[in-house]
Design brief:
It is a single chain. The chain is mainly alpha-helical. It folds into three domains: 210 residues, no CATH class; 77 residues, no CATH class; 67 residues, no CATH class. The protein has a three-stranded antiparallel sheet. Helix 4 crosses helix 7, helix 9 runs antiparallel to helix 10 and helix 9 runs parallel beside helix 11. It is elongated and about 110 Å long.
């Protein structure tokens, strides 16, 4: 060991060792972090391998779509969609403008008094149609608003009727070829389909106002035909649009039943409602979403998807997000495996008791949160689906009421299960001769189905009800 000579009779200052120790500590931490990254990467790859094996063992028919060549949306569907993207059909469901409102003198003062916009006021008028008591006593303003709002839809009636010539959208063929979520056709077309279902509802209302019950009946059927076409749409967005299309068809059918004379043949509607299988629709959409979402996550490895990766990474290290992509995919597939198991279980109508998406643990969990961007709120999807199932049951009871009378309808309801509660569906007859049938709704609490008061009031949904005239 060398020492410096003593100067001025003083010993040399000791050499500081902390920089070297700090450097060694940093190096050790870097090695530990690197080892952890490789360890987590290996865990992610093992997890992904296990999830893919479980997927293959499940016998999911959607897996075989990966090896089939991609196909486009058939031309007949594209032509039908295009018809609703042209004037006047592209604006047929929009609210009235200032000039149209000014042409309705009976409504000018109510607008000013209510202090609300046209959309809200028209929505209130539409709500009046759900109650047979108020539907039979619309005032001049309400009739004028509904007629003006729905008159523009008449020019699109032929396109609505053309839905009867179409098969269901071939959703599985649109998933072929390893398509990602944004590569599956129909994203814009589904919004067009919702517009078409709104047009069918409007034409039904217009015909009812003018007492043309036969035509109203046919356009109510067209609403269900549009929903049938939408039933083949893939992905969860396709399921959501199908739910909305059926919901609108049920709205028109409910309003129609108030006005139809006794003895009207409703066999087609009875058969169609019995055919609808909401659980099968939800299961198919979840399976298709899993497939396309898996391709989306895997596709983020491609250099041309760098912008998408940057967007999804937010403020996190792009390198680490990409390094843990296998782990993110494993989390994603695990969430969908649990979601599908829940949908296939006898208790599928209940919210899952265990989390569908299980977050990764410390220390690199935040870099695997990429999967969370592709996981929907399954509780909400289940409640929306069960809500439609309950409405379908109430619609079938309304047909029994129209055909066989109120006593038969109430007996039928007592033998049917409320999808939300597992108990019989409820009913009563109010003093004004209105049969109130209801499900407890998504909160699973029976609120007694209070009826909406007359006028334009803010009235949140208490229970899921269906009103009909006593017969």
């Amino acid at each position: 060991m060398s020492t410096k000579p003593v100067q001025n009779g003083e010993p040399p200052a000791p050499r500081a060792r902390w920089p070297k120790l700090a450097l060694l500590a940093v190096g050790a931490l870097a090695l530990i972090a690197t080892a952890l990254v490789f360890y987590w990467d290996a865990r992610g790859k093992d997890g992904l391998t296990r999830e893919l094996e479980l997927w293959r063992e499940s016998g999911d028919p959607y897996l075989e779509l990966e090896s089939r060549p991609a196909t486009a949306l058939p031309e007949e569907f594209q032509r039908w969609f295009d018809a609703f993207d042209q004037p006047p059909c592209d604006t047929a469901n929009e609210g009235l403008d200032a000039a149209e409102i000014a042409a309705l003198p009976a409504c000018a003062q109510p607008f000013a008094d209510a202090g609300i916009d046209e959309f809200q006021f028209t929505r209130c008028a539409f709500d009046e149609l759900r109650d047979p008591s108020s539907a039979s006593s619309l005032d001049a303003c309400e009739r004028a608003l509904i007629e003006a709002h729905c008159a523009r839809a008449l020019d699109c009636a032929a396109g609505v009727r053309a839905a009867r010539e179409l098969a269901a959208i071939p959703g599985t063929t649109l998933l072929r070829g390893g398509r990602t979520l944004d590569e599956v056709p129909l994203s814009l077309e589904l919004r067009t389909m919702v517009r078409a279902s709104g047009i069918a509802l409007c034409v039904t209302r217009y015909r009812l106002l003018h007492g043309d019950f036969d035509e109203a009946l046919e356009f109510s059927r067209d609403g269900f035909e549009i929903a049938r076409v939408a039933s083949g749409a893939p992905l969860l967005i396709g399921h959501q649009e199908w739910l909305l299309a059926v919901d609108r068809a049920l709205d028109g059918f409910q309003e129609l039943l108030h006005a139809l004379p006794a003895g009207t043949d409703l066999t087609w509607f009875e058969t169609e409602l019995a055919r609808l299988d909401v659980r099968a629709q939800l299961a198919a959409s979840v399976r298709s979403e899993r497939l396309a979402g898996r391709h989306t996550l895997e596709g983020l490895r491609r250099p041309e998807r760098g912008d998408d990766l940057d967007f999804l990474s937010h403020d996190r290290s792009r390198f680490l997000v990409l390094q843990f992509l296998s782990h993110s995919q494993a989390l994603y597939l695990g969430a969908y495996r649990r979601a599908i198991a829940h949908v296939d279980s006898p208790t599928w109508r209940e919210p899952p008791t265990e989390p569908i998406y299980v977050r990764a643990s410390w220390p690199f969990g935040r870099y695997t949160e990429l999967a969370a961007a592709f996981i929907p709120l399954f509780d909400r999807e289940i409640d929306r689906t069960v809500r439609l199932e309950a409405r379908i049951e109430l619609a079938r009871a309304a047909i029994v009421n129209h055909r066989d009378g109120t006593a038969a309808a109430r007996a039928w309801l007592a033998g049917r299960t409320d999808p939300f509660s597992g108990k019989p569906l409820r009913s009563r007859v109010d003093p004004d001769g209105v049969l109130v049938m209801w499900s407890v709704g998504a909160d699973r609490v029976d609120g007694g189905a209070p009826r909406r008061p007359p006028g334009c009031v803010d009235w949140p949904e208490h229970d899921l009800d269906w009103l009909a005239s006593e017969r």
